[in-house]
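Why do we bother with a discrete structure alphabet at all? Because it lets us treat a fold like text: something you can write down, compare, and reason about line by line. To make this less abstract, here is a complete entry for Putative L-type lectin-domain containing receptor kinase S.5. Read it the way you would read a sentence in a foreign language you are learning: slowly, and without expecting to understand everything at once.
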Amino acid sequence: MIPCAYLKYTYLTAGLFYHLDVVNFLLLVALLVGAVAQAGCFSFNYSSFTEEDETNLILKNSYIALGGIQVTPDVSSIDFSRNQSGRALYKRPFRLWSKSKGMASFNSTFVLNIINTTNPGGDGLAFILTGHTDLPSNSQGQWLGIVNEATVSSPEIETVAVAFLTGRSNTEI
């Protein structure tokens, strides 16, 4: 089953039906029903986050605050905020890749509000698709909580990431 983030509705005008005979119409309906049944679409939308949303999320070293998700600890203590990473995942698993069709499909839109209150700020943020809910040890900094130095080239990672870098990584300093 391949998930999709939205289902596009299409309709046929009466004029088109006027030119189709019954056999062609039934064939068209059967194809459309089969295509929708195989798609297995689901979607979710969070315009802001509330404590009730925690039932749908897996929060690792992160929490919901002020309508958003704080993915690292509060920076009120400089020592505490260094070398930290967090993770917020959608709890319901889904299959992204279809081995039989050899393809994957998803659509995502998100808005980020990144405010650096320390100098230098953090390394960044990543949107990930992963089958691993645990936050890898030593994955802070340039690894953005996705992998660590030992696992970065491992084929078992099975993770897709889109990274938003907000500062210079350790290798650029």
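What the structure line is telling us, in plain words: Residues 86 and 166 are 16 Å apart (CA to CA). DSSP finds three helices and eight strands in the chain.
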